[in-house]
Amino acid sequence: MYVLKGKTVLITGGTGSFGKKFVYKVLQMDVKKVIVFSRDELKQYEMAQEYTDPRIRFFIGDVRDKERLIRAFDGVDIVVHAAALKHVGICEYNPFEAIKTNIQGAQNVIEAAIDKGVEKIIALSTDKAANPINLYGATKLASDKLFVAANSYAGGKTTRFAVVRYGNVVGSRGSVVPFFQKMKQTGKIPITDERMTRFWITLDQGVQFVIDSLNRMNGGEIFVPKIPSMKVTDLAKAIAPDCEVEVIGIRPGEKLHETMITEDDARRTVEFDTHYVIQPEFPWWNDKYTSSGKPLQDGFSYVSNTNKHWLSVVELRNLVNE
Q: pTM of whole model > 0.85?
């Protein structure tokens, strides 16, 4: 990909599920260097045993520490910001910690990137940031707002920021897939509500969408991929068809259905074959995508239970097996 050619790329939270896949994919490209920035020395040690490419570097640090970010960003061209506290229940129980990492950490990344002259930054968001009802979603909404506004905050500097928002990632750490696989051994699968639906994307698709968005971005966009929905009951059938299903009730901060584009956001969103772009409300923006994208009809929203594309039990089983 041309945007990464000859560039030094840094990823925060680089030892997570997304980070490891991103690093693997980027090392297949003609990049100058890849820097993994994270706070867990054991995960970095283990990753270093697996990734032996001489272009990779490991940098211990926390996005809460602005001075460390400034040091890490020296000479960096591209930043992918994937570091976050993302477990809904843990964020509900530890709200101040979620705010420090997800909001204050986002501000630190923005300020360090501007100060060190980074060219492009993409921040990973979540469907839970649209109409949030839990603290995790609220912190990610605040983070999204910070990254979009950062393009104005940068002033005359050339640093540009954008956001990628997508749904649940198949098999990522903390996702429902490994949990269902574990519970399969008990003969009983706990489901919070039989009506529940979710957007679904593979790790490889998520990484590729971020790379594609780095190529597309002008600064200020929220990129949303067109991805399928699935029913949680179908996922249970795909993983454990012979198990009993036990309905345990919705947990604190959990939605029945997830939203990626709200009706209000849709008024400034344009549609492409593979994705949507929520455009920023900047005086200088001037609808950069209107000539190539299609405006959405009035009242449109992108919600998991009204999605046109659904995964069947067979398709879910194949994804999980992969």
A: yes
